[in-house]
Design the sequence.
């Protein structure tokens, strides 16, 4: 399998496959393809896993693409201005934990499953719900990032505090909890919300410079009012 990212504003990833190789994405993720690609849509992993994906913000059904000849190509598009980050899970033994909406596509050898936050406060106040996703396997995983991607490698005990919507993914060795912003003035006047995500190393963390939900909210005052 070969791949390349095309574009900088709303990029796509072109994946060239040999006969028998497979990729999958959530419904609607495919942008274009050449001859020699067969599509099959199903509830990948069974009913329970598909329901879990729905809770995690992904589609219940997954679209699977199989190459019927060498050199067949299929491309997957991001849904917002940003970046596409490839992750080789064979180099990450424990897999990657992702926020909902971060998954774009993956090789067939990659498994996506539901991951519940261990701390009640993280699920209740984290802004991403109780359910995250965990990717495991030996293949390539592609993450969709809003804005630019920032990668950090935390040392044991090193702490990184992040606006919740700017967290994309992290290794399972990184602990994840929510910390309340201190000070009434900061809470009501700071413009950053009530809580921050506290990530504690060791492990790799992927962040995004843009939070598409916040960006959309800032556009609302400029939308024309209904006459």
Sequence:
């Amino acid at each position: 399998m070969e791949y390349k990212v095309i574009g900088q504003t709303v990029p796509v990833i072109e994946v060239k496959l040999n006969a028998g190789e497979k990729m999958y994405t959530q419904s609607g993720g495919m942008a274009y393809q050449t001859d020699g690609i067969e599509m099959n849509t199903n509830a990948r992993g069974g009913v329970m896993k598909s329901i879990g994906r729905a809770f995690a913000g992904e589609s219940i059904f997954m679209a699977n693409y199989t190459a019927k000849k060498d050199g067949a190509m299929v491309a997957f598009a991001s849904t917002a201005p940003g970046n596409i980050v490839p992750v080789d899970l064979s180099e990450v033994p424990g897999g990657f934990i992702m926020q909902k909406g971060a998954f774009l596509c993956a090789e067939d050898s990659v498994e996506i499953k539901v991951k519940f936050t261990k701390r009640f406060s993280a699920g209740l106040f984290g802004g991403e719900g109780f359910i995250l996703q965990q990717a495991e396997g030996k293949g390539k995983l592609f993450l969709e990032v809003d804005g630019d991607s920032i990668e950090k490698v935390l040392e044991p005990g090193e702490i990184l505090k992040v606006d919740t919507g700017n967290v994309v993914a992290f290794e399972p060795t990184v602990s994840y909890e929510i910390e309340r912003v201190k000070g009434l003035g900061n809470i009501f006047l700071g413009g950053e919300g009530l809580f921050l995500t506290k990530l504690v190393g060791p492990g790799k963390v992927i962040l995004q410079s843009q939070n598409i939900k916040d960006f959309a909210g800032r556009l609302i005052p400029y939308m024309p009012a209904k006459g």
Remarks:
- Confidence is low (pLDDT under 50) at residues 122-129, 183-191.
- The first helix runs from residue 47 to 55.
